[in-house]
Design brief:
The structure holds two protein chains of two kinds. Chain A is 24% helix and 36% strand. Chain A has a six-stranded mixed sheet, with helices on both faces. The longest helix of chain B is centred in the N-terminal third of the chain and has 31 residues. The chains are: A alpha+beta, B mainly alpha.
Chain lengths: 362, 224
C-alpha cells in the first residue's frame, strides 16, 4: 500500500453543519494538499482532527498505516505523538520566549549544541537570523509568520499542518510570503496540509486540493483542474473561478503583460516581479459575450470562438467557448436568448486586462 | 511587643502560603482545565472558607482532627501527640482557611493563558505536564505571586480559626491577632495599639505589592 493519510470522520455541531468527510492524501512523493472552502466550511476542524487537537465522534484517521484515531476502538494518538509541525492561524507564538526560545521550545531530546545548530539552521532558512533575540510582540505580522513556520519545521516533522498561513498578513506581504512558502515547502519535502479560503494561495501552493463546503467534501484534484473544471454548480460557487490556464509571459509593456495561452495572446495587468510561467485565471462573471463584429469596447481582450457547452444555473447560464482555449462565461438567461447562443454558434468573448489574474507557477 | 507571637505568626503564614503554592497549583489546574460536568461542586467547596464564619470552619476542623476522629487517632498514633492545640494542627487549619485565596488567583491566571498557545505546545511534542511548567506557569507568575501573597496576608490576620483549633498557647499557637485580643482584654491599650499598627502596616504593604504588580482594578478580588 502506498503511504498515505486516510481520513474518514464525522463530527456534529450544535450551531454548524455536520462534518462528514472521507479523504486520502498521498505521502510519497511529499506533496502539498490544500483544504479549500469558505469560512465556516469545516476545513479548520478537519485540520485540527488531523492534529489530534479535536476528536471526531465517528471514524478513523490513519497515517501511513499507523492508526491515529479510531472511534470504534477508542484509539486517539495525542498531538504529541503525531510528529507534527502545526501552525495555527494567528501563529500562537509564546510571548514569554524570544524568537530563538520559541524555535528551540520543541527540540527536547537534543543536546545543547545540536539544539543551537538546529535553531540557527531554521533561522537562516527563513532569513530571520537577525530576529533571534526579539520577543514576538516586537515583530511585524510577516516576521511572526516566519517565526511560527521556523518553530513548526524545527523538529523536522513528518507532517506539516498550516491553518490559513497567510490570512493574517496584509496583501503585499501575503504575495511575497506566498511565493517564499511555496519554495520552502518544495525544499523541505515534508507532506503538508494547508487550509485556505483564498484561491490564489490554493493555486500557488497546492499540488492537490480538496474543496470543502458545509462539512462535505465536494471535489478533489489538481488545483488547476478543480478551478477550471468544477464538477458541479456547488463547487463552481465555492471556488468562484472557472478558467485557469497555463501561460507564458511573452512581453511586458506599459505594465501590461502579453501572455501566450496556447495559440492565443491574452493581455493582463502585470504585477511586479512576474515570472515567465504563470497560471492565467479568469472569473466566468468577468467575461462578456458579444456578437461577432460589434463595436469597440474598453476591454483589452476580444476572442472569437464557438460555443462548446451551455449549462443552466437557474437565472444564469454557464457558457463554455472554444477560442483557442476553453473559456467559461457566466451570462443571464435573457442575454443567452438575445444573442441566440446555442452549441456551435459563433461568438466573441471580451474581458478586461484587469480581470485576468496571473499567478506565478512553480 | 510580643516577639514570640510575631515569630509564630510569621512562621505560620510563611508555611501556609508555601504549602498552598504546592497544593494549590494542581487544584487550580484541575479547576481550570477539567471538563467534568460536576466541577462546580468542588469549586464551591474550595470557595467555602470565603463565606463560612471562621468559628464554624474551626469547629469542623477541630472535630475532624480530634481524638474521636479516625484522622485524629491516626495522627496521634503516628506522632505521639494529638493535632488540636498544636502548631501542626493550626497549620492544617490555616491551609484550609486560606485555600481560596491561593487557588482562585492561580485558576484565574491559568484561565488567561491562551488555549492556542497550549495547543501549540502540545503539537511541538511537549506533554501536558511539561507544557504546564514551561508555558502555563511562566505566563501565570503575576497570579502565582498574588495567590501566595494573599494567602500569607490572610493567614497573618486570622483569628477565629486559630482560637478554635490552636487555642492560645504562648510560643506555639498564640498569634499576633490573639495577642491583640488578649491585650485589649487586659485593658493594655498601648501594647494592643503597637501590635495593631504593625499588622496594619504589613497588610497594607502586602496589598500594595499585589496591586502594583497586577495594575488592574480589583485584581485582589477573585474574578470568578
Amino acid at each position: 500500500m502506498a503511504p498515505e493519510i486516510t481520513l474518514n470522520i464525522r463530527k456534529t455541531f450544535v450551531d454548524r453543519a455536520t462534518i462528514a468527510v472521507q479523504l486520502r492524501l498521498p505521502l510519497d512523493p511529499p506533496s502539498v494538499t490544500i483544504l479549500f472552502g469558505p469560512s465556516g466550511s469545516g476545513k479548520t476542524t478537519i485540520l485540527r482532527c488531523l492534529a489530534g487537537l479535536e476528536q471526531p465522534e465517528e471514524g478513523t484517521i490513519s497515517w501511513n498505516g499507523q492508526i491515529w484515531f479510531d472511534a470504534a476502538t477508542h484509539v486517539h494518538a495525542p498531538p504529541q505523538a503525531r510528529g507534527l509541525g502545526y501552525m495555527a492561524q494567528a501563529y500562537a507564538l509564546f510571548p514569554n520566549y524570544t524568537v530563538e526560545g520559541n524555535i528551540a521550545y520543541g527540540l527536547s531530546g537534543l543536546s545543547i549544541q545540536e539544539k543551537k545548530a538546529r535553531v540557527n539552521e531554521v533561522l537562516s532558512l527563513l532569513q530571520i537570523t537577525q530576529l533571534a533575540q526579539q520577543k514576538p510582540a516586537q515583530l511585524s505580522g510577516g516576521q511572526q509568520q516566519r517565526v511560527a513556520l521556523a518553530r513548526a519545521i524545527a523538529r523536522r516533522p513528518q507532517l506539516l499542518l498550516l491553518d490559513e498561513p497567510l490570512s493574517a498578513l496584509d496583501a503585499p506581504t501575503r504575495t511575497k510570503l506566498c511565493e517564499d512558502l511555496r519554495m520552502l515547502l518544495t525544499r523541505l519535502a515534508i507532506p503538508a496540509v494547508v487550509v485556505t479560503h483564498d484561491w490564489t494561495e490554493a493555486l500557488a501552493l497546492g499540488d492537490q486540493m480538496a474543496v470543502i463546503d458545509e462539512g462535505r467534501l465536494l471535489q478533489t484534484g489538481i488545483p488547476q483542474d478543480v478551478f477550471s473544471r468544477p464538477i458541479n454548480a456547488d463547487v463552481a460557487r465555492v471556488v468562484g473561478i472557472e478558467t485557469v490556464l497555463h501561460g507564458r509571459v511573452r512581453e511586458i509593456r506599459d505594465e501590461l503583460a502579453t501572455v501566450q495561452v496556447g495559440p492565443v495572446p491574452v493581455i493582463a495587468v502585470a504585477s511586479p516581479g512576474l515570472e515567465s510561467d504563470v497560471f492565467v485565471c479568469i472569473r466566468a462573471e468577468d467575461v462578456t459575450l458579444e456578437l461577432a463584429g460589434s463595436s469597440e469596447t474598453s476591454a483589452r481582450n476580444h476572442l472569437r470562438g464557438t460555443v462548446q457547452a451551455i449549462t443552466s444555473l437557474g437565472a444564469l447560464v454557464r457558457v463554455t467557448i472554444d477560442c483557442g482555449f476553453l473559456l467559461t462565461a457566466l451570462v443571464t438567461r435573457s442575454a443567452q436568448s438575445e444573442l441566440r447562443l446555442a452549441i456551435g454558434s459563433d461568438v466573441r468573448a471580451a474581458f478586461k486586462a484587469g480581470s485576468v489574474h496571473l499567478i506565478p507557477r512553480r | 511587643m510580643n516577639w514570640m507571637a510575631i515569630w509564630v505568626t510569621c512562621k505560620l503564614a510563611t508555611l501556609t502560603s508555601l504549602t498552598l503554592l504546592i497544593i494549590g497549583l494542581p487544584i487550580a489546574y484541575w479547576l481550570t482545565y477539567s471538563k467534568w460536568r460536576w466541577k462546580f461542586l468542588i469549586e464551591s467547596i474550595v470557595a467555602l472558607p470565603l463565606v463560612l464564619p471562621p468559628t464554624v470552619l474551626g469547629f469542623y476542623i477541630l472535630i475532624a482532627i480530634g481524638p474521636h476522629s479516625p484522622i485524629g487517632r491516626f495522627y496521634t498514633d503516628l506522632v505521639g501527640h494529638p493535632l488540636p492545640f498544636s502548631f501542626q494542627g493550626l497549620l492544617l487549619a490555616s491551609i484550609l482557611y486560606s485555600l481560596p485565596f491561593a487557588v482562585q488567583p492561580f485558576a484565574t491566571a491559568f484561565e488567561q493563558v491562551d488555549r492556542k498557545l497550549i495547543e501549540a505546545s502540545w503539537t511541538l511534542g511537549l506533554s501536558k505536564l511539561k507544557t504546564f511548567f514551561r508555558l502555563i506557569l511562566p505566563l501565570s507568575t503575576a497570579g502565582l505571586i498574588t495567590g501566595v501573597v494573599l494567602s500569607f496576608a490572610h493567614t497573618l490576620g486570622e483569628f477565629g480559626v486559630v482560637l478554635m483549633v490552636g487555642g492560645n498557647i504562648e510560643g506555639i499557637t498564640r498569634t499576633v491577632s490573639i495577642e491583640i485580643y488578649d491585650e485589649v482584654q487586659a485593658l493594655n491599650y498601648a501594647a494592643a495599639a503597637k501590635t495593631s499598627a504593625l499588622l496594619l502596616l504589613v497588610s497594607y504593604t502586602v496589598l500594595l505589592l499585589v496591586y502594583a504588580m497586577n495594575r488592574r482594578v480589583w485584581s485582589v478580588w477573585p474574578q470568578k
